[in-house]
Amino acid sequence: MLNSLLSVVMLRKWFPLKRSFIEFLKRVPPSYVKAVDGISFEIKNKEIFVLAGESGSGKTTTGRLLVKALDPDGGKIIFKGKDITRLKGRELKFFRKEAQMIFQDPYASLNPRFTVLDTLMEPLIVHGIGKSKKERIELIIKALDDVKLPYEDFMHRYPHMLSGGQRQRLAIARALILKPKFIVADEPVSMLDLSIRAEILELMVNLREKYGISYLYITHDLSTARYIGDTLAIMYMGKLVEIGPLKSLLVKPLHPYTKALIEAIPEPDPRNRFKEVNLGLKEFYETKLLVKGCRFFPRCAYAKSICFENEPKLIEVGKNHKVACFFI
Amino acid sequence: MDEATFKKEIRWKKISMIFQGAMNALNPVYTIGYQLSEPLIYHLGLSKKDAMKISMNSLKEVGLNEEIAKRFPHELSGGMKQRVIIAMAIILRPDIVIADEPTTALDVIVQAEIINLLKKLKNEFNISIILLTHDLRIISKIVDKVAIMYAGEFIEFGSIENIFYNPKHPYTQKLLASIPRLKDEKSKLEYIPGVPPDLINPPLGCKFSPRCPYSTKVCKEKSPTEIQINLEHSVKCWLYMN
Lengths: 328, 242
Description:
heterodimer; A: 328 residues; alpha/beta; Rossmann fold; four-stranded antiparallel β-sheet; 12 helices; B: 242 residues; 2 domains; 40% helix
């Protein structure tokens, strides 16, 4: 049976908006962007946990909180049974080794003045792995081999000499070289050509089997998630609106927002060109955050007055399947 | 035709373009309204005031609020910027709009909305669209004819039904197999191994031959010529030569 690797309880991150000097003097309370506003979930060993939502829903912030690139304002992160929410500096070093991140844009995430060798050497030096240079190079050869970049050809290349897919594979090798147990992959294929996306996804799945890695896979495109994910969580404006096993959730989505996300995925069928896509969403809506009520209310085509009055809670509707909506 | 007349008569009046990356295609220091009215002022010689009126109207056509004319690009979301870019491209009522990856940087929901909008405008104003993209899923939503390009050449050309239901070139077949789908039986995606060819020293013969699973001796020696499969379908591949 799979057991829990990382669990998150009521995680919260609010970014304060700048106040003007006058507002500061008048002691106007600062307003916040509630990027992540009380979410709880659990990632099991060797699980690929998909976090989906549109841009601005807070999914990248969640990813960054989980690798401790940002400090949460509230809630708890428990990794391998240890509370790491408040750990800092040296105490956190063990976690830095165990949790790594793959970024969205491989054109920006690699240092242009580092060769492939330098890029992979740095984490080893920082964490003091390998006694001699020779030992380290052996580890690097192995990591490059894992991501199918031939060592002799690529060792001394700079990022600009690599294609997009090769860069992303180097980024994966960099994440992998410390033998982490948990990797946050923030839209790892969205900047890549459709024809090589599958290659990167397959690589990620193979590495999970080989090293027993859990992933948090962040994406807005459910069609790629479908091929690799185990659990799917849908995020909207800082809250989870639906969470459940990926396979069944894609077949039978319950929340109107999940339905829209699934409907928005273009199916490759030429007959589609004669009809419009109907997302079941209001296209234009007030973007200001409501004080109370369901966050999805302004866009929801099914909204009733109760949605404006109260905020729905995540309710269990099936095995491991939870939804936050009044009309289920 | 010389450059000056082309600029005056054709560019933007007859052929306009929607650029890739709406995030960076607008000038950050001018208001949306000013940027929209620029072609009207320079091409049609309208006064600033009249041009502004027309721009506000064209914002409505793409489903935005008129009041956006007074705002600056950084105040808009990605989808709204993309709509402004589209409004800009159709403001002089061109015959042809070239849309270069109009939805790449947008998330799926905005992407679906933008495709709906392009379809609506195409029918409303009788515009022809040349859509450039790597995403065949978007093609199937809007396009009538498809040309598949590889290393600077059209390798397959045909109506969308021909390309999607009866792809001939191995590259097209591979591209179609690499589309992630929500509703099908396959549990594994295919991909095209290898990298696109170096265009400075392109491979001899068919340029796809180093990555092609069916390549034979002749593929590596001579480039194939175009073969007509039916009235609406042609392909460049040795597999269909005889």
